[in-house]
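Form 12-C: Joint structure prediction
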Amino acid sequence: MASVDVPVALLGYGTVGAAVHRLLEESADEIERATGHRLRVTHALVRDTAKERGFAPDASVVTDDLDGILRDDSIQVVAEVMGGVEPAGDYVLRLLRAGRPVVTANKQLVARHGAELFEAAAAGGVQLRFEASVCAAIPVIKVLRESLIVTNVHQVLGIVNGTTNFILSAMEKGRSYGDALAEAQRLGFAEADPTEDVAGLDAAAKTAILATVAFGSRVPIDWVGVEGIEHVTLDHVAAAHALGMHVKLIGRASLVGDRVDVRVGPAFVDGHHPLAAVEGAFNAVMLQGDAIREITLEGPGAGGIETASAVVADMVSIVGTTGTGFLQNDPVWRSLERLPPGDLASPFYLRLEVEDRAGVLARIAQELAAEEVSVAQLVQQPSDGHAVLHIVTHEASAGRVAGALQAIRALPEARGEASAMPVISGRGVAELGWA
Ligand code: NAP
Ligand code: HSE
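Section 2 - Result
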């Protein structure tokens, strides 16, 4: 398939804009493989063209002239990642009216002017996508609009602001509100004006968008009852802890008969509820409906690269659903070999029954060491004249653990059946090293 060069433009080159550019460059081969297109950033609109920038774009790309973008007919998608209601709203409207597809991460814009923007998109015959405006990397809009199209979702419950969840999680560890907010700002999670985060306004816009998409009826942002976390104290956090609960900023949209209730505010969340375990800048959205019962999506809710992943996905969806559309391509593009079953590493739980006398533990340790299996935790229980050892190992390959067990079973001190099970403990979240 011949590669097609697709010029694209960014409105904004801050935390999210620079990450979008970086992701487009670093994932160019994957995007081309899926869509047949290579997306190339030709314009990045900013306020200050002289500013030093991370992942620096070519000087010829940086501009403060929107008209140049409007005039350039070769541009096929524009990502609005500048924020603010104006002039972003005016720019997006002009682009849509000029027949340019737009992707936006701007929740205030979508929540406040969605109706007008979608009307302009329909009139211009182009797409307006907004996945990144709600919960950054979590594809909740796609799930609601595509996978759950025939499902009657009647409640949406979520942690939809990363900054406040980061602050509340830090307060649980004894850190002050001010300290945690400053770190969230440094990490690029917070809005340009962090009052939007802590006062619940960011979460209100996202909850209004979720309600609109879930219920198929426009939910204006001024219907949302909003309370922020400014009055949450370490005392609240400690009281919640004593009750086995967690303080979280919760957005809730409920369909009650034919009427809608939408609110955002701090809540005590029971420790067993799926939202209780959502920590740091992670978000989660629980969708409740007749057929689906309950689906919870969890993932990074803020951050440059996390948000960029949703922006790029929307851009790819737009270029991929025209011309040589990626849905027509065979998704199989390489041939991977199977990993030998014993090679996958994990921590393991081992249960060993052995004689309860001097030197036995040393023999066990010797057999584990011979297979380079390292012990993380060990508990010994007496049992019927024997000792039962409960061991949790550090990460080790399944083959090495099986080898150690075989050797331990053969020891004269062994009693009963030695067994092993993998321990599932990590969250599988790799440090990306750049944001
Ligand atoms: P940011 O770091 O403040 O970057 C904003 C960019 O837009 C800057 O490059 C700025 O130019 C440019 N800009 C702002 N006003 C402009 C104007 N009037 N004309 C031309 N350029 C203008 O913001 P961000 O964190 O990337 O957020 C961007 C958008 O993504 C917001 O809508 C935000 O709500 C949304 N979002 C952010 C996150 C996150 O974790 N950061 C997550 C999800 C969604 P200069 O560089 O010259 O100042
Ligand atoms: N400021 C927002 C947050 C960014 O903290 O969730 C993601 O929309």
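Section 3 - Comments
The chain has three domains: 4-130+306-328, 140-300, 345-424. Confidence is low (pLDDT under 50) at residues 428-435.
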